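Figure S4 source data
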Amino acid sequence: MAKFMVVLLSLTSLGMLASCDIPNVFEFCTALMSDKQNSCSKATCQGRPGKRGPVGPKGNKGVKGDTGATGTSVALEARVKQLEDTIAMMKKVFTPNQKLEFCAMGMKSRDIADADISTSSDWESFHHGQYGRLDEQPASNPTSYGSWISRKPRIGDWIQIDLGMPKAVSGVVTQGRPTSYDQWVTSYKIKCGNFTNSFQTIMENNQEKVFQGNNDRNTKVTNIFPNPVVCRYVRLYPQRWHVHLSMRMEILRGECYDLLNELNTKNGHAILKQRGEECGQSTPGHTVDGCKTCESNMGKFVVVLLSLTSVGMLASCDIPNVFEFCTALMSDKQNSCNTATCQGRPGKRGPVGSQGNKGAKGDTGATGTSEALEARVKQLEDTIIMMKKVFTPNKKLEFCAMGMKSRDIADADISTSSDWESFHHGQYGRLDEQPASNPKSYGAWISRKPQIGDWIQIDLRMPNAVSGVVTQGRPASYDQWVTAYKIKCGNSTNCFQTIMENDQEKVFQGNNDRNTKVTNIFPNPLVCRYVRLYPQRWYGHLSMRMEILRGECYDFY
C-alpha cells in the first residue's frame, strides 16, 4: 500500500490526478475493471472476473450527437513555442558547472544518502559505492580512495542508486578514479526500475543503448538518455573499463532533458496515443502489443499511462494489465504471489447478453482538448522555474538585455525629445554608462528643460518582443534620477500605445539613487519596433540610463 500511495501521489504531483482522496486498492482496481460502477461487494469483485458472456445482438444506431466546441490547441502551441524559445536562450548563458549544479539529483551534494547507494561488489570497505560520487576525493577520515572500485571486474557488475520514490531522470555524468591509478569505465549501460527485481534497460533503435564513458581520471562525461524515464532505482552496468572497474557518477533530473539535449520530436508519442485509443476501443480480451485484455475501463487506464509517456515521463511502452498493475501496488515489493492466489477464483461464465436497445441521441461533443500540449506547457514551465534558481541578477541581465549596454543598439537608433547639450545626448543614456573625456560624455541622458512629455526612444529596427526595462540615475557628481515613468510602444513613430494595467496607464516606479538598477516587467510582453520612456517624476534633474529586456524574459522574471 505504501508503494500504491507513492505511485498515486507521484501522479498527483505531475498534475495527472486532481483528487487528494486516495482510494484503497480494492476501490482503485474495482474502478478500473468496472468502468466506475462500484456497486459490487469485495466478495464478488475482488476475484478475477468470469469470462464475458456472448455478445448480444447489436442495438440500433443512435442519432449523431452535436459537434463539439473548438479546442484550444492553437493558443497552447503558441505557449509551447514561447517557452521553448525562452529555454533555448537561457541555455546559452549556462556554463557546464551551472548545468550540473542545476541538474544534479544528489550524488555530489549528498542529498542521496550513503545507505541509498549499493553495488554488486567492492574491492574493500574503502572503495564502497558510497564513495562513487561525482568529484569525490581520497580522504583519511573516514578512509576513502575516492571512487567505487569493484572486487573482481566483470560484465554484470553494477552500482545502484535508490531515489526513494519514482522520479524523472534524464541522464548521468561519470568520472574515473581521481588519483594514483589510471582507472575508469569506458562504456556502460543503464537500467531503471521501480522494484529491485524488475528493471528495464535504456533502449535506442530497438537495441540496448551503450553509453560512451571516460578516457581519463577526472574529465566529466555527460550522457543524456534518448528520452527521460521515471523510476526509483537507477543501475549503471559497466561494459568496458581501463585497467580496473573504478568510477564516480551523478544522476541528472528529468527536468534537464530540454536543457541538456535538443527536444527529440520523433519520440513516438503519436504512435503510443494511437495504441491507447485502439486499446480503449477494442473488444474484450483483444491484445494490442503490450496492452492486454482490454476490459471496459482499461482503455482509460492505458491512456493515463500513455499521456505520461507522451511527455517523456515513462520510458516503457509495455503497459501492464489491471492484475499486474494492482499486484505491484499491493505487494509493496513482495511480488511473490501468483495469479491464482492474488487474483481470486474466476467467476462463472456470464449468460448470453440480451439484444441491445436502440441507442439514444449522442451527447454534444466535448470541447476539444490538448492534453499532451497542456502537459508539455507544465513541463516547460517547471524547467524554467528550476533554471531561474541558478541565475544571479547579473546573469539575468546578461541574458535579457537587448543591446543598450552592449551597444548592439546603435547610437543612431537612440533619440530624445531634448538634450541639455551634445554631451548629454540619448546615446549616453545606456545602462552602466560612465563619464568619459574622449568622446566627451557625462554618462547619462539629461533633458534640456525637464517637463512632462519629454522622452527617450529606442528603435529596435524591426518588431521585437519586449518584456520590461531597467533604469539607473546619473552616475557621478550630481544626485539626479527619474523616480517614475510611463512606457509607450509602437511600430511607427506616429502611432504609439501606452502600457496599461487595470484599464489605466501604468506608472512604473523608478530610481532612488544614482547607480542602483531598478527592473520593471510589463504586465504582458509586447511586440513593437519603437520603445519610448516618458519620465513622470524626477529628482534633481531629468537624468537617466536604461536597458530594454527581451520578451523571452517575461517568464524568467
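Figure S5 source data
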Amino acid sequence: MENTSLETEVIKSEESEIEPLILVRNAYKRYSPTVVVLRGLNMNVSKGSIYGLLGPSGCGKTTLLNCLIGRRSLDTGTIQINLESKLQVGYMPQEISLYDGLSMSEVFMYFGLLMNRSKEYIQNREKEFIEFLELPPSERIIATLSGGQQRRVSMAVALFHDPELLVFDEPTVGVDPLLCHNIWKYFLKITKEECKTIIITTHYIEEAKNSHMIGLMRNGVILAEMSPLGLMTSLNCSTLEEAFLQLSQKQEDHQVETEDYPERNTEKSDIPFKSGSIFALYRFKAQLFKNIAWTKRNIPITLFMLLLPSVVFILFMSTMGGNIDHVPLATVRDELSHGIDDCNITNKIVSPYGCVTDIRFSCKFISFLRNKSYEVIEYETVEEGVNAVKKNKAWALLHFPKNYTEALLERLDRGSSAKNETIDSSTVEIHMDNTIYFVTLGLRRNLVVGFVNCMQQVLRNCGINEKVIKLPMRVNPPVYDSYDIRYAPLSGYIISNILRGKLRLEMSIVVDGRLSDISEKTAHCTLNEKFLYQGLTGLEMVIAHFCIQSIIAVCQNMLVFIIVYGVFNIKTNGNKLLSLCIFFLAEYCGMTLGFLVVEFTSLERFVMYIGVSLIIFLFFSIGMIWPVEGMHRILKKMNAVNPINKAVLAYNSLQFRDLPFTNPLIYEGYLYLFLCIILLSFSVAMKMRNN
C-alpha cells in the first residue's frame, strides 16, 4: 500500500547505504482497531554503532524493541537481523526484571547459566560489573537495593554474556550523572573496539548526542534517521529538541485523516531469530539453580509448604471424631423427696406382682449418664429446667414424674392392661436443644442405650427375659470394620494437596511471573518475558518447577505417613505403597491444575480467587462434611467422574476394606487421577504452544 504522507517520508543519512545489522521495512502493529502503534515504520541500524531511538512516551518505542527481539510479531512488514541466535542479543527492558528474593551473585549466576557461560566466566564478569557500575557487594539481596542500583544490575545482566547486539530501554533513568557519563564512554568504547551494536531509547534528547545515529520516533513512525550533527544541520537547528519539534509540526501539517490499515499477514509472522530447541540442558540447569536458590532464601515458605499436609492431618485428628463430653443436662426428679440424697437410700421397692428393685430407676439412669461424662444439674421445677435449656445452660431436660419407679414396675407387671395413668407416670419427659446436630445425635444415642441398660437390670429383678427390651433384629459382626473419623483426615489430606497446588501457582505468580504472556496488549516486558526472550521455554520452566516440587512432595508424604501410621497408629489392612502412590498422583494433579490456572488467568488476584473456590468446592463435594449419598443429584453425578472423590474411595477401599487392585473402586481412583493429570498437562502444553 502506498502512502504519500510524511509518515512514510524519512530523512535519511548518507550512512544508511552501509549494510545494516538490523533492517525494518514497512512495519505495522496494532493491539486493537483503535490502538495502532506502528504505522509503516522503516529503520536501519548499522553494525558497530549506537542507535539512539528518541520519542515521547506511547509513541511505540517499547513495542518496536519487543518486535526486534522476537517477543512481539508484526501485523505486516519485515524485520531482518543479521545474527544467528538470541544468545547474541542482550536486552534491558524498561521495567526492572530481576528476582527480588535472590542476591546479586545468584542473579548473575542464573543469567550466566541461562546464556551457557562457565562459572569461572560468570565470576569474572560479576567482579568486572560490580566495579564498573559501582554496585554494592554481591551478597546484597535485590529487594534491598535502591531503584537506581536495581537498574544497574539489570544493565549488567544485559551486558553479562558479551552479546553482539545490545538493546536498552531507558537504561539511564535514575542513574547518577557521573556514572551515566561513564556508561556512555563504555558504550562508545565497545562499539569502536569490539564492533558491538547498541540500540538505546531515552527521553533525554540531549543525552542522545553521543549516538552515532538518531531515530526520531513519533506516532508509530520514524520521522528522521541521521547522525545528531547531520540532523541539526539539515534542519538548520541548534538543538536536537528543536529539530524534533520541527519534524513533529511537519508531521501534524501533513497528517492523513483516514488511512487504510493493511491486512494482517495470514502466514506465520517472520521472527527475527530462528527458534531454538524446546529443551536445552543448560537452560534447564539455570532454571533449576534459580528454583533451589529461591527455596533456600525462603525457608519459612518452604517449611510451610512442607508441613502443611501434616498440620492439616493433625488438626483433623485433634478436632473431629472425639467423644463429646461434659455436656450439661438438666433434671427434675419429682420422685425424689429430698433430691439426689434419696439415691443413697437402699430401700427395696416391690410391685404388687413381685417386681423388685433396690434403687430408684432415675438414680440408675442419672448414674449411667454421669459415667458417660455428662454433667447433670438438678432443678426444682420443670419450668426452671426448660429455662435452663433456653438459656444454653443445659442441652436437655429430663423430667421423672412422681412415683416414676413404682409406675414403671406396675407397667411391667400389668403389661397391656396397664392404665393410662400408670403409663403416663412411667414415661420420662425430655426437652432437648437440637441446634447442633452432632451433640443431640450423641445425646439421643446415649439416652436410648442408658435406658435399655437400666431396664435390663429391672427385667432381671422381675424375672423377665431381658431380651424382650431389645430390638427384634440381630446385628452380626461387620463385613468391614468401622474406621470412624479416619475418613475425614484422609479427605483433608487430599484437599491439602490441591491447596498446596494453589500455593505453588501463587509462588509461580510472584517469582516467575506467568508461563506465557500476560496480555498481547501489554507494552511492558515482564520478568517472565525477559527469560523467554533469552530462549528459556515454558517446558524447561515447568520441568524445573516439577523437580523441586517432587522433592517437596516426597518429604511431605513421608512425613504424613509417619504421623498417620506412627504417631496416631491408624490400623489399616491394605498395601501402604499403593496408598502412597495415590497421594503422589493427587500432588501432581494439584500441580498441573495450578499451572493451568496460571496459564488461563492474567491477574494474580483472580488466581487466588480461583484457587480458594476450587478448595471450597472440593471440601464440600467429596463427602468431607456429609456423605456423597446425601448430596444433591447434580453433585452426585459430578462426583461420579470427580478424580479426587475417586481417589478418596480408592484409598478407603484399599486400606480399610483390603480390596485387591483389580477391584473397580481401586483402579478407577488411580485411572481417574492419571487421566486428569494427562488432560491438564495437555491443556497447559496447548496453551503454552499457542502463546
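The first strand starts at residue 11 and ends at 12. Residues 1-11, 509-527 have pLDDT under 50 and may be disordered.
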